[in-house]
Amino acid sequence: MAKQHDVIVVGSGNAAMSAALAALERGASVLVIEKAGEDLAGGNTAYTAGAMRFVYEGNDDLVPLLADPGDPRLPRTDFGAYTAAQFESDLLGFNDGRPLSREQRILIDESAPALRWLSAQGVKFEPIYSRQSFEKDGRFVFWGGLTLATHDEGFGLARAELEALTRAGGEIRYNCPATGLIVEDGAVVGVETPDGPLRAKAVVLACGGFEANADMRTRYIGEGWDKARVRGTPHNQGDGLSMALALGAKAHGFFGGCHATPMDRQMPEYGNLDLPHGERKHYRKICYFLGVMLNAEGRRFVDEGKDFRNYTYAQFGRAIMEQPGHVAWQIFDAKVDHLLYSEYRFHDAHFVQADTLDGLLDELDGIDRAAARATLATFNAAVDADVPFDPTVRDGRGTRGLPLPKSNWAQAIDTGPFKAYPVTGGITFTYGGVEVGEAGGVRREDGGEIPGLFACGEMVGGVFFNGYPGGSGLTSGVVFGRRAGYGAAAAAGRG
Question: Which of 255, 258, 279 is closest to 468 using CA atoms?
Fold first, then answer.
């Protein structure tokens, strides 16, 4: 008879590995199964920058988590603080008037303990100096409540969690998709795979959302979303969600919402599969707050300086998808070129450059050049040059008299050379999922739980609605992954 594991975890991303590590911590035997081969394992985690948002009071909360607590920059670094009240306010800003959900409250309350727990598993962090701070008066000033990312970003997170799994005695099988759930007497007792059934006392579904499934994107998010580029793995086809719903799981959360990011218009259909793991995030283009974005009609369509980009990129990625042809151009001048992130200097970054603004617009295929010239001239004339430009704060340097303002960081685009980066919308993950109980068990429509079935990560609905503050997704994976792992271990008679 084939070996029966206490817990089978479906998927190998951050949430899946958090569940596996938590179950192992409670003494359960754990098998992780992954649809991809070893080279593409790790779900969307390996495509991220590894940033995690969590509650902290100051430097003393952060230094114990660092890979290099002796970094010479630390004595002149101002991390500030990020309170539970700030986290709550940030989430409510994307809820479209909804009150804080139960899942959001759990995310806030457990964010700091979850990060400390992950650090204890051997995952270490480093300050995000290159993206979340600006040097001011000789000090590094962090902004937007997001300070730490895992060492070596998302790929480093996936690698560290895999190493932790191996150290703890867990097993992983690649090229092993779950094709169905095994149910006996109403309880889930294993998974079907192409190589035969695998039995367990509890199953954790942690295999992502439906962002890589064009049909499901169109059905749930809307027309045109089949054209979105997929920032991450091609394997998140909604398999776990479909299996759970077929078993009577309660659909939960906002299925019409998703994390979408401005991406290089020329990127592949799926996330950077031909690039080294460390470069897979480089098609993202999120420095729009330093310039302006124009659509094919030559019009601005968002307030590029509405807030720190941590709070706007998921919404603005969606806004690009709503423009004609699902495209836009990010336009910058020489004054801000040194502030653009490394992804704008990436060897495969696509842009055009010209010494004059008229010359730049002449190089843009598919844009209404006359309208674009008028838009930029009107924008330049509206900039309030009396307010100092300061990228470390919401500087209030905006425009005056425009129907669509730029609220912060507005500067006239008037200094050559000029650059324009063509972008489209890239989907990262979806928001709709299933409802889970206190221990991560999948709930039915009647409020009860499906025995033996647990879920975490993108499978959990109700965490995000019309956007999200950057870094919350990976934190959510750890929070709900740990809960599901402990719950599955308990269901298996461990802990």
Answer: 258
Contact call for residues 274 and 335 (beta carbons, < 8 A): no
Measured in whole angstroms, how far is the alpha carbon of residue 482 from the centre of its chain? 18
Residue 347's pLDDT is what?
Answer: 79
Total structural domains within the chain: 2
- Tell me the per-residue pLDDT of 263-300, one tens digit each, with 9 for 90 and over: 999 887 765 545 554 555 567 899 999 999 999 999 99
> Could you tell me the two tokens for 463?
């965490």
Q: What is the pLDDT of residues 465-484, one digit of tens each?
A: 998 898 999 999 999 999 99
Angle in degrees, 0-180, between the axes of helices 14-25 and 153-167, rounded to the nearest 10: 20
What lies within 8 Å, CB to CB, of 324 at 6+ separation is 295, 296, 297
pTM of the model: 0.89
Alpha helices in 171-250 (DSSP H): 214-220, 239-246
Range of lowest pLDDT (79-88, 247-256, 269-278):
269-278
What token pair was written down for 481? 């992954």
| Residue 435 and residue 415 share a domain | no
Do both 380 and 411 map to the same domain? yes
- pLDDT tens for 390-409 read 998 999 999 999 999 999 99
The residues pairing with 193 across neighbouring beta strands, listed in sequence order, are 196
Q: What are phi and psi of 285, to 5 degrees?
A: -135, 100
Instruction: Say if residue 349 is in the same domain as residue 390.
Output: yes
- Tell me, yes or no, whether 190 and 65 share the same domain: yes
Number of other CB atoms surrounding residue 75 within 10 Å = 8
Domain limits for position 473: 5-212+431-491
**Residue 38 burial (CB count, 10 A):** 12
- Report the distance separating Cα 147 and Cα 63, nearest Å: 11
The dihedral of CA 478, 457, 275, 353: what is its sign?
negative
In the chain, the amino acid numbered 212 is A
Q: What is the dihedral of CA 17, 185, 433, 216, to 10 degrees?
A: 110
- For residue 1, what pLDDT is reported? 46
Residue with tokens 């704008």: 344
